[in-house]
Amino acid sequence: MKGYKDMKRKVIFLSSLLIAVFLVGLTLPASSEEQLGKIVIAHRGASGYLPEHTLEAYVMAYALGADFIETDLALTKDGVFVCIHDIYLEYTTNVKEVFPNRAQKDKHWYVADFSLDEIKQLNVHERTRANGIAYFPSRFPLSFSKFEVPTFTEMIELIRGLNKSTDRNVGIYPEIKKPSWHTQQGLPMEEALLEILNRYGYNGRSAKVFIQCFENESLKKLRFELGTDLPLILLTWETIWNYGGNAKPFTSELTEDILEEIATYANGIGPHKDRIEVNPDLVNWAHERGLVVHTWTMRADSLPAQYRTFDEELHQFYIIYNVDGLFTDFTDRAVQFLRSWPSLEK
Ligand code: G3P
Ligand code: CA
Question: Is 85 marked active-site?
Fold first, then answer.
């Protein structure tokens, strides 16, 4: 009975969101990308409003007008890609309650230690800190959470399905998390990722997909060893993370020389926004080498001190720094910003 009620609740919820998709589809003009050449990437779905990396959050991001929907990926013990940000389960699911004795010595419950069947028994909730307190207290209530961990193929089928039914062409933006660590666990990610993308028709350089990774060697493997020409984005914090998991720090910034090298295997960079704040030239340097710049992460409920409003931050990055796209937890706000900005070509 409980299972039936949960399912009914889920169907009603998803149906409401789908109705919203159709309503938005009827009223939205063409995508920001088509109109303005700049993209809105839904960071972990509509994660400002619903728990990250759930089908519900992806469908809401779709309805809010995202150009691309991001998913982070980890592999289960039985080799299935699931949509989750961490290689651990405990910050976004109730794994501690369901499998109290399955933590490793380091007190982490690893995705790679669980089968897909086991992971499907968990409920996803809003991200918490190690002490169980919500990371963003003003977001979706922890106690209402009845969401599943989706597989990557479920996510793709949702987006592809909505693209067909709404006649839009929203892209996907998968990030393989810690591929060198996964390889050490006997779970290499790169080939398996390409196989799935190929199966769903993501082929060639103009496919509506960006593959992102913090590990440069993983992208080189995708490009040179596996021969993909799909768009690749190297994510950077202050360091490039090399294959094997060893951080190799830049001297200070992403230099022009380093960008030159990145351009030999990637189509763009995904620098943390602070990298651009300290060196706005980075965007031009990247553009001069044919690299797009997609920065992260813009959160209306976690504004950097120098900005009074979210629109001010969006303006600074989209217009002044001239990034090509940004990851945001608040897709609707970025879409509205781009549509109302007067000096962009429409
Ligand atoms: O992938 C872009 C951005 O999402 C990187 O940060 O930690 O949210 O995956 P993270
Ligand atoms: Ca990510």
Answer: yes
What pLDDT digit, counting tens, does each position of 20-52 carry?
Answer: 554 554 455 556 666 668 999 999 999 999 999
What pLDDT score does 18 carry? 56
Q: Which amino acid is at 216?
A: N
pLDDT of residue 97: 97
> What pLDDT was estimated at residue 237?
76
Which ligand 1 atom is the nearest neighbour of the CA of 270? 2
296 Cα–ligand 1 center, Å: 7
Candidates 28, 54, 51, 27; CA nearest to 40 is 28
Residues near ligand 1 (Cβ within 6 A)? 43, 72, 85, 175, 212, 235, 270, 296-297, 327
125 assigned to active site? no
- Low-confidence residues in the chain, pLDDT < 50: 1-2, 4-5, 8, 11-12, 22, 25-26, 242-244, 249-252, 346
Mutate to test the pocket of ligand 1, among 72, 84, 236 (most ligand atoms within 8 A of CB): 72
By the CB criterion, residues less than 5 angstroms from ion ligand 2 are 72, 175
Residue with tokens 């050490």: 184
Where along the chain do its domains lie? 2-87+148-340
CA 78–ligand 1 middle distance (angstroms): 25
Which residue in 81, 85, 89, 82 sits closest to 72, CA to CA? 85
pLDDT of residue 37: 85
Tokens 């990926």, located at residue: 73
The shares of helix, strand and coil residues in the chain, as percent rounded to the nearest 5, are 40, 20, 45
Which residue is catalytic, options 53, 85, 125, 294? 85
* The domain defined by 2-87+148-340 carries CATH number 3.20.20.190: yes
